[in-house]
Structure prediction request, 144 residues.
Amino acid sequence: MPFIQNISKLKQRDSIYAALLEECAYYQQLSHKLRKRLPENIAEHCRIACIRNETLVIYGDNNIVVNRLKMLLPAILANWADLPYGVRKHKVLLAPENQPPKRPNTLTLSATARISLSQTAEKLTHHPELAAALKRLSHSQKEK
Prediction:
């Protein structure tokens, strides 16, 4: 229950957060209503993102879901009695992926390894690209 209490406090403290939370809850309700009208294997892989310019925007988790939704939605929306006012069209998009943040490279080379890389790079005259890459690696490690 502490999470719900924190949200309640947040709503009381700032009207912008309250409006955002209400809008979020509204789209969750719409997504739930849409999922009840879809086949089970599709329902769990889609959600309503927003309503913009009289267009209901729906995200699908993968291309298969997106294509199935594009086929199913015209009939579903035509029979959806309590469809939000003003919705005249729909758009189905592939949901953007949430990519984890890149971890900074914390690996370092010892002084001996850097010297060895530099010496190896000098000997690789017959592979200039590899020699240049080894030199860059040994020099980039010096700066750390």
